[in-house]
Amino acid sequence: MSRSPLPRLFLLASFVVALSVIFSQAAFCELTEEQQNATHEEIDPIKFAIVANGKIETIAMDSSGNLLAAISWPDKNAKVQPVLQQKQETPITEQPPAKRQQPGIRPGGPGFRKGGPRKGGRKGPKRVPEGPRLYAIKVISPEGRVIKTWPLRKTAAMIVTPLDDSTVFIGGKGKLAILNRKGKITKQLDVKTVLDGKYAKAAVSGLAASKDYFFVAFGNGFSLRASEDIVRFNRDFTEAKIIIEQQHGCCAHLDIDVQDEMLLVAENSRFRVNRFDFEGEQIDSWGQRDRTSVEGFAACCNPVNFDFGPQGVLYTAESGIGRVKCFSSDGTFLGLTGYVDTTEYHKGSRLASMSCYIPIEVSQDGKRIYVMDIRANIIRVLVQK
Q1: CB-count burial class (<10 Å; 0-12, 13-18, 19+) for 140
Q2: What predicted TM-score, i.e. pTM, was given to this entire model?
Q3: pLDDT tens digits along 112-141
C-alpha cells in the first residue's frame, strides 16, 4: 500500500515557511543595523494648518535658519467647470466578457483603461475640477512655529530659493519673481517673453543663484523621460542664455544648486550628480544606480533633491525609500545620515511611487535635517543622535 504524499508536502511547506521567516528576519536585522549606524534619527514632524484641499508645494531655508514652505489651495472665487478625464462609457462590470480588459494589454494601447477597473461598477468618468490655485509662503521657525505668512497675488511658488541678501527667488506657472524680506514682489518676469517663448509652457523645475547669475531649469514632460534645459540669467533677469540642454529629471523635477563657482545638477533619471561651470561646460559626474549598497541610489529616480550642509558636505534625499546620505561635492561617500518614514508613500500607486518629490534642507550646524513629505503635507525632521 502506497503512502499518502500529504505528510511530506506538509513538511516541505513548513520548511519553506521557516526559511522565509529566517530570511525576512535577517533582512529586518540588516536594515535595523544600518539605521543604527545612521548619524540622525527621525522625531515628530512639523505640521501646520493649510486651507482645505491645500498642499505644501516645496520648502527652502533662509539665512536665519527659518523654513520657507510654499503652499497652494484652490481659488474658490474662480469659476471652474468640471472636466471629463475620459469619454463616457459603459462601466466595466456591465460589459460582456469579450470586452473586459485582458492581462497583458499595453498601457496606453487599445483596450487600456487608465487606473484599472472601477470598483462597484461606478458609472461614468471621474470628474476632477481644474482651475487656478492661490499661493502663499509660510515662514516657519526651526522648531515648527509659523512666524508669518506671505500671500502671493497672481504668482505661483512651485520652487523657492532664498538669497544671501534676505530676498527670495521663486518660480512657477510661467513666472519668475523676486521677493523682499517682507514677502513683497520687487521684480517679476513672464517666461513667455524669454528666448522667443521657447519655455512658455515649460515647468520651472529648479532654481539656483550665484552672486552674478540666476539659473533656471525648465522642464518638458511629466514622466520618466522628462528632460530639462538650464538657462542662465543676470541677476536683473537680462541676457537669458541656454547653457545646458537635455538633463533628465523625472516628472519635471531637477534640483540644482551652486557651490564654488560650479553648478550642481541632480540628474535623477540617470542616478547621478553632474557638475558644470557657469558657461555650461561639464566638469565631472558621479553616482550610480544600486539597489544593494548604501552608497548607490535606489528606487526609480534618485537623488531627487539635495542640499549643502556644514563644510560643503552634500546631503542627498532619495524618494521611494526615504533615505538621506552625505557626500563630498566630488562624490566621495561620507556616510548614512538617516531615514524618514515612507509608510504612507509605499501605500500609494505605482505612479506616485515613481514621481515623488522630496525637498531637503540642512541646518547650518548639520544637527537638524528637514525633509518634505509631499503626500502627507508635513515636514519630517531628522536630528543628530
Answers
A1: buried
A2: 0.78
A3: 334 443 344 334 334 444 579 999 999 999
